[in-house]
Amino acid sequence: MAIKKLAGGKYEHDYRVDGKRRYKRFRTKAEAQAHELEIRTAKAGGTLMDTRKGGKIRFHDFYLEWVGRIERVGARGARPLSPVTVAGYRRIFESHIRSYFENRALATVTLTVINEWLKTFTKDDARQRAYRQLGRMLQFAVDSGYIATNPARNATINNVPTPSPTREPAALTAAQLRSLAEQAAAGGRYAGASHDAYRLLILFAGTTGLRWSEVAGLKAGALTFGDSSQVVVRSTLVPVDGRLEFRETTKGRKPRTVPIPGSVATELEAHVKDMASDSLVFTSPSGAELRSSNFARRIFHPAVERCRQLDPAFPEIVFHDLRRTAVTLAVSAGANVKLVQQIAGHSSAVTTLDVYAQLFAHDAQSSARAVDALLRGAAV
Known about the structure:
The longest helix is centred in the middle third of the chain and has 20 residues, at 124-143. Helix 7 crosses helix 9. The chain has 14 helices and 8 strands. The protein has helices at residues 29-45, 59-72, 83-101, 111-118, 124-143, 174-185, 196-208, 212-216, 262-271, 292-310, 321-332, 337-344, 349-355, 361-379, and strands at 2-5, 11-17, 20-26, 223-224, 230-233, 236-240, 243-247, 256-259.
């Protein structure tokens, strides 16, 4: 790098960025020296880059580059994202981002532009999800050297608060779980068209904690019966762009083993008795694969409504609350945190404790009383 005085009295700073020679002129030598110091500092910190290429790439072309990368190797380059996650990103882009940004040059996506875009939203949850995705995309632009900073990661200027939840997560008691199972078996929206497998599905989900995709994709060969009945969770059935796809993987990307309560296991064993090992355990009355939207609309929510009519204390729940029900019942029965981790399907017991900390709160006083009893016994 060098600074030289030009014939007209101005000063020129000669330097390189990404191996390419650059020139910048200044009125005074002090300004040129300040720019030289800025360039040296950026080089030392590894942040010097030629961000002019951000003005040469259209936002939509950049989006195609970003989504292609996460499909191949994921955001961090470690593993591809699941097709369900990628499909979700595509939907958000098409619904909320494309029309506003697609023909802009990437470098023109500034704080002002983003704030104007945020004003176009009428729903807080859509605004928050779209803003979060834009932040991920622009961070990739920074890491790729297209832009210097991420204007969608400025919490002070364009803070987008997380919307308040419309309802609190809930869990059922054992009696409420059985009541819901009976109502689901009664036909849901089509009362009188009984399908007893739905009763078993609710009991199974509410005691094992499997996610909907894991329940829908469960195959008979994953079940083991006997003194230690259990299910090896290793497959899912997920919707991708409107099509159901079977995946030999779970959210945690590795199988987990979950115990099945004896009474549920007895019914389940009879249910799968004549099934081939690769047959789906739970299907519709016609034998079709289960879709979460159809099941929720036709069976689950009508069953919940009937339970609430019979019992005013029955909580307003969604299917995912059956996972919380399974964890709550296990904790109430004295299960240790590692077993609860298996049921929840968390990669770490720390996550389990963070998510379900309040369920273990009663254990604190129980533990204190037990230790106190030991101390009193020792004193005697």
